[in-house]
Amino acid sequence: MNEISVDKLGRLTEKLYIKGDRKSELWLGPPGIGKSDVVRQLAMRLAEINGKKFVEYNDDIAFEILNEPDKYFVLVDLRLTEVEPSDLIGIPRDLDGAVAYKPLLWARVLNKCAGILFLDELTNVQRPDVLSISYKLLLDRKAGFVPFHKDVLVIAAGNTPEHSAIANQLPAPSINRVRVFYVKPPRLEDWKDYMDRTYGDQWDKRVYAFLTKYTKFFLMQPQDVETLKQFATPRTWTMLATISKELSTDELEYVAIATVGEEAGAHFTAFCRIKVPDLEQIIMNPSLFGTLDEDAKYFVSVELSNKLTELIRKKDFKTFDKKYYNLMNYLLNNDKEFLVLSVFMMNYKDRVEFGKWLLMNVKRYQEFIKLFRETAKLKGILEKE
Fold it and tell me: pLDDT by residue (tens digit) across 209-253?
């Protein structure tokens, strides 16, 4: 099976749309890998490219959109397991002895506006009537008798039977009329870049440090396709990373297990309970770093990354040279992986600024530059650096 990463699929779909291709797509893959988020990001980018205002549809703003339809690029997100047939084709009404369907507001909006109709959980729909109408939306680009605007793209998403006990096979004629992409989970580096783009500094970098060491916890499919036990996915790590800094250690244990599952949550909580020397002590005596156990080294790397980021944003490279050089040099010669982790924990913009400064002082920092370039190549992100 030829799989594509969800981020790459978003970029590919964007390229096809810009070239004028509006063929409907079906994205299939495991739960929790970011399909919905990428569709939303895609809609936001297409709105910007086309000079339109991005809006996520709700009935409260429908008439505002319809008053100026050329102004907007609309994302309509429908979870098909939660709808009735009338939610998709309209409400039947008597009209001079005949039945006519009164069109739905969201359908009227997509009749007038550019946008994306996202049909989530298509393969999990258990009602044949809802499923057949969903095919019409996907294949015919119509809601009842209301056709969609020529610049509307319809994307459906679902799970395969190996990932969902209720996933259905789809009719061969329907499959043959859409593009079908099999989506693979993002890499940890892709997830980290997404977190930086979406949340800036408002997420817990300890999660990234933890997953760098315990990569097996990044995506843990449940042993059974039906379960009441939580499990770790990029989606659930995102949920945890956006709240974990605000919790006490005791609170974190409950929330972590409830969010990413018992095994991953317990390990992450234990990781966060590590006691380490104050970073200032290690800066004064870098050899202290070598006495720490491995988990403590990961934890110190998080603190070091935060301090370096602060200096970079202040453009205070004199302090870096005076205060942090010895520790960085110690790591270069003794614990390279933690030097790398401290730098690559920064967001892309801060890494670039740091890299520019190193290049300005290339004679002193030649070995640093070489290490970071080699790492970027190994991580598959050299083109970004």
Answer: 999 999 999 998 776 656 678 999 999 999 999 999 999 988 999
| C-alpha–C-alpha distance, residues 196 and 79, integer Å | 27
- Segment 145-163, tens digit of pLDDT: 889 999 999 999 988 766 5
This prediction has a pTM of 0.78
Q: Is the pLDDT of residue 167 over 70?
A: no
Task: Residue 192: give the domain boundaries.
Answer: 186-273
Give the long-range contacts of residues 132-141, CB within 8 A, separation 24 or more. 133/85, 133/88, 133/89, 134/80, 134/88, 135/171, 135/174, 136/89, 137/88, 138/24, 138/26, 138/174, 138/178, 139/24, 139/174, 139/177, 139/178, 141/22, 141/24
Judge if 289 and 158 occupy the same domain. no
Single-letter amino acid, residue 94: D
CA dist 302 and 294 (Å) reads 13
H-type alpha helices, the chain: 6-18, 35-49, 62-67, 86-89, 105-112, 128-140, 172-175, 188-199, 205-213, 234-241, 249-260, 262-272, 279-284, 294-314, 317-319, 325-334, 336-344, 348-360, 362-379
> Would you state the pLDDT for residue 99?
60
d(CA 343, CA 269): 24
DSSP 364-379: HHHHHHHHHHHHHHHH
Domain count, the chain: 3
Q: How crowded is residue 91: how many other Cβ atoms within 10 Å of its Cβ?
A: 12
Q: Is residue 134 very low, low, confident or very high in pLDDT (cuts 50, 70, 90)? A: confident
Q: Which of 185, 214, 246 is the last residue of a domain?
A: 185
CATH number, domain at 171? 3.40.50.300
Q: Which of 27, 145, 131 is nearest to 90 (CA)?
A: 145
Largest CA distance in the chain: 89
Average pLDDT on 183-188 reads 88
Q: Which residues contact 215 (CB under 8 A, 6 or more apart)?
A: 188
